[in-house]
Amino acid sequence: MKKIIVLMLGLVIMAPPAFADWKQYQKDERHSGWECDVAIDLPLCIKWRAYIGSTTHGAVPVADDEGYTYIIGGGRLQKVGILSGQVIWSKYASYSNTSPMIDGTRIIINDAYTFYAYDRNTGNLLWTQIIPGMTYATNMSSDLMNYYVNDPAPVLANGKIYIGTRAGKIIKLDSATGYVENQFQVASDIIVASPAIDTDGTLYVGSNDGYFYAVNSTTGALKWKSYITCPLLGPASVDTNGVYFASSLGKIYRLNKATGAVMWTYLTTSWTNSGGALSNGVYYIGSDDRMVYAVDTVTGILKWKSAFTGDNFAKMSCIVICARVFILGCVNKLVTLDANTGSWDYTCNTQGSNFTSISYSNGTLLFTSNDGYLYAVGKCEAACPCSCDGAKITPSPTYTGTFSATMTPTFTQTFTVTPTFTVTQTATQTATGTSTEVPTDTQTPSPTFTPSFTATATPTITSTASFSPTPSPTFTATACDGINPPKFTVKMILDPENSNNIIFEITSNVMLTAPPHITVYPHGICANKPVLEFESVLIPAETMKYRVLYPKQTGFGDIDKIVVKGTDLCGIVGISNGDFDKETIPGQDVKIFKNVFNPDLNERATVHYKVYAGDTLEIKVYSKAGALVKTLLSNEAKQAGEYYVYWDGTNEQGQKVASGIYIVTVKCDYYTAKEKVSVIR
Fold first, then answer.
1. Full-prediction pTM beyond 0.70?
2. pLDDT tens, 11-30?
3. I need a labelling partner for 164 at 20 to 30 A (CA). Which of 151, 404, 426, 555 fits?
4. Are 232 and 247 in contact (CB under 8 A)?
5. What is the rounded CA–CA span in Å between residue 487 and residue 476?
6. What secondary structure, in 3-state letters, does 606-672 show?
7. Distance CA 315, CA 108 (A)
8. In order of start, what are the domains of the chain with their CATH numbers?
């Protein structure tokens, strides 16, 4: 009996540590982006960084349950120890800007045309599958797409892989064999966002056509679609309450999972194509306006928003580890926020820009940077001098030793499409020794190579980083309490494009029963100038912001005070003291998406505009010299709201215009706006 007890005790002591896996982009098929196996306490340090070669925007590592991470960089797929930073094996792989997937003993990656499956123990190639038409930001002919849209991360659920295409299809593959089981025609335009799969098998995804779709992942049958009006290029997250995502205009949505009905929206002040994270009833997401937002998933009320000067978060997805939010800033920062308050707790510096997302395992954050390194960041240990500055860490640890492996595909599936083409990839690499790999879509013959890697496996940290966390100002929407009156802030905005008008923008701290009443006291009231009364109108897509169009009189300084009176949902009346701020740059009522486009590729510019309280619109395109090219809208009446109109690069006769810069003008009673568009042919 004693021997048995001792043996069992020995087994317990020798058992390897358990690691929480992060098996795909945003952790799982629901894109939850949340984990709490080990809390990450401050201060942080860079535990190690490993040079993996050139990485481009969007390369995301994953982590298995045995303590290893897998990353694509420099044309290689590499397996790296999370605790040590040692490279276990390195295999030729196509240059990919997305996230691998862990499926049992397999690692699966993709590029713009092909999926590849590798054995995660040996690195041997298991199967390949060509999928023509997959969407990649780098082949979408737009700088906006290239830099600020993630290359599509496939989603893995129940042994099946799902990914979108440029033709609006969802491709479904078997992860064990690569066999293409089905192709679902879902949307009428590009699907670049990573789909999300719910526990009941429903697939949720948005498209560039402005619709959000719910599809049966087994049959491809459409359950519902919801018109959002603008391109949807970022992934959704799913929980028991609903589906959450942000549009390219920066509006955050919650949809009803059963019907697609919009349950609530919250508008940020710029666009976002990132993924969010769900934790404890809060949805966290970043925006191009340099803010990270935390929104209550049930009510849609803002819990906090927090700014970090210098970085935008339009593409980088938040993750939540226990009570902290982590996100990469595009410049060179890893930033840490308190999940409850939004305060900025800590930053870590890389040496390159960070247009990508983070993964996590067992107390360690894993991410790549455009400086070519894979970073591992976690709590400072006693033996660590504690630096979070990548410039002060040299050298990075790498694997020391020689190893060989044979890439042996188990079979090749024939996949016929129209038109038919062949993709051949050849790569030659030299590292201490020489290796040559020539995988093709026929997989014959099977190449054999023996690379050799030699480096030092011990990191050296030369100094200690310092930091000064500074809470950022926030504006939090609160519900009325039946006691305190609503409060208002007022901006007087001069529109330089429309010198006959001034705009008053009013922000309430709570929701109101109706748009507030505005009383304007012109300068010189004692000289018998009349007091002016206005009813404000709600700004489209807002819940607590209003505007008044005021006919400008003698100048920008001809007003003494602007008094706002409004009633909150509890019936309490609030009256402002008349104070206001002046601003010379108006809010952006007109935005143009795809403002650099090629009509020969059937591309087009999308003109998004706001209408206040009903108006008549005129939208025209002019040459740089001022000649009218095309009228898109002519004296068309619109109700209050947000709208789109497209310009396909043709003139009034339907002929495609020459390459050059064109001016789009939008005129209405409320504003006049001008935006530039570039045609490239």
1. no
2. 444 445 567 889 999 999 99
3. 426
4. yes
5. 13
6. EEEEEECCCEEEEEEEEECCCCEEEEEEEEEEECCEEEEEEECCECCCCCECCCEEEEEEEECCCCE
7. 23
8. 2-453 (2.130.10.10), 488-583 (2.60.40.10), 590-679 (2.60.40.4070)
